[in-house]
Fold Adenylate kinase.
Amino acid sequence: MIKLHDLHFKPFISEDEIQATVQHMVTAIADDLQDEVPVFVGILNGSFMFVSDFVKKYPKPCEVTFIKLASYEGLKSTDDIQRLVGLTQDLTGRTVVILEDIIDSGKTLAEVHRIFKNENVKELKIATLFYKPEAYKKDFKLHYVGMEIPNKFIVGYGLDYDGLGRDLPAIYQLKTTQHMTNFVLFGPPGAGKGTQAEFLKEKYSLVHISTGDVFRFNIKNETALGMLAKSYMDKGELVPDQVTIDMLNAEVEKNADAKGFIFDGFPRTNAQAEALDKLMDQKDSQINAMIALEVDDEVLVQRLLERGKTSGRADDADENIIRNRIKEYYKKTAILKDYYSAQDKYYGVDGVGSIEDITERLSAVIDSL
Ligand code: AMP
């Protein structure tokens, strides 16, 4: 993720992918032009990096020149194209290939055609590294297109946002949602996730989603989802992934304006973790951390039996079911430690002590994110 002026941008097209695309275009154009010595005309400022890489890869003699046009102001393409530096040499009878970094509305291209109308070139071909088909409003033929991209604002590889970003060797895309803080509160049943989440959601203005609570709410209201979940929950087993993932997606969608989420009891399997990453990605966001409360098994059993005296939860009342839930946790869920460790996002926190002490330990991790 990068920040330019006031906006955040996320990686979109890698350096390697760009270079492969440039090579592809070079090969196609060199094949078509055979022994013709073309004049490549770059459109400044945006195309300088593309033109430089392109001609370095071009296998035969060629000439290079530039014209300088300006159309962008901030994030919007303006109607008014300014010709800042026009053609400075006679191109009569020459084969000209325009090298554009990006074609979106096509206004710049219209200006290019105006410039070349009376130049008597032998042939005028248009080559663009990026092309936004959804934004293109003109009929000019595009002879060579490197890559079609969606109609999103991008920076890097010559393209800028108010002057910044041209120097980046890869392409980044504007993030459309504000910055969010999302973390997974992790730990075995009885570790205190629910209790801690209540404090943390207030402190950091986050939305707390506990999949167990949502299931229990559905069971209480005798919904179809509740009836389905109940058969698994009563035995201390996990509800099937697809049911849980669909439910979680719906809960996140209900809170479209959230500043971030505390996920409690989710994900519990690799499939759920992958689904969560995908969901966050769609929101232009990500999971920042998995914060795990670490508590010894016997302490958990005692805590849950104690809670069962007042919680009314069937799965807290029976020691065998409690032990089965803890077993399920280590069998299916603890592998998620590896999933988040691999992304450098795992934080273990000692879950034994007073509620306040544990909140403080968790806050220290969140503040460091
Ligand atoms: P909890 O309140 O987190 O201890 O969850 C209670 C029960 O709800 C679990 O034992 C599961 O049966 C079910 N459950 C909660 N979250 C999930 C999940 N992410 N995947 C599958 N089952 C879940």
